[in-house]
Amino acid sequence: MNIESQTGVNQSNQHRQPAVWVVIAAYNEESRLQETLSGLCNEDWHIIVVDDGSTDATFQNAQAFPVWILQHPINCGQGAALKTGIDFALQQGAEVIVTFDADGQHAACEIPDLVNPVLKGDVEVALGSRFLGVAKDIPWLRQLTLKLAILFTRLTSGLKLTDVHNGFRAFSRQAAETIQIRQPRMAHASEILDEIARLGIKYVEVPVTITYRTETLEKGQSSLGALKITGHLLAGRIWK
């Protein structure tokens, strides 16, 4: 995979400790990325934006912030973008890696609570749960789809989770090195959970807030898309 990279880190951020790195996969998020990065850049994190072949001004908007920017020349999918960002963070010496959506659904102020059990060494992975926390303005069909996905995950992986397909997660360095992301698109979310179950990785769910907006729902995953993800995941299992 051909990847172009650019560092947008200014001198004022060089003092930051390399413990926590935040990875954002962004595809055509020019209208939402600025708000997302504004919230994150007020905190003491290293931030990586992976521009996944965007055709809008996502890359240019990211350049206005003190972040690392990696660029896919073509759209490869969210799973592939996260893998690119995670691999880069590991190369930079990251101790904890957080995955964070570009579209403004997550709250940057909740990162400390998410990473705390990983930093303390209690678990290797912390998974955000909107159903232990808050799912603001969640459509009923989306909630039903997620509940069915939770049941599917429990049946296939044995993990007794309250939420799945939540992009707000934290990995220890060891977990990030061990978990293999092979699914390039949205099925990677289920693949990560399968890897946690397969490898016996210790995890915890942490209450988080997900805010649903009309524009993100229009761009995001539909119920039909969820069925396609399930198909991709099952195909991946058969391929193994």
What does this structure look like?
It is a single chain. The chain has 240 residues and is an alpha/beta fold. The chain has a domain at 20-135 and 164-214: Spore Coat Polysaccharide Biosynthesis Protein SpsA, Chain A (Alpha-Beta Complex). Helix content is 40%, strand content 22%. The longest helix is centred in the middle third of the chain and has 18 residues, at 140-157. The radius of gyration is 17 Å and the shape is globular. Residues 7-16 and 232-238 have low confidence and may be disordered.
In short:
This protein has helices at residues 33-40, 58-62, 78-91, 111-119, 140-157, 173-178, 188-199, 214-219, 223-239, and strands spanning 4-7, 20-26, 46-52, 68-72, 96-99, 125-136, 169-172, 203-211.
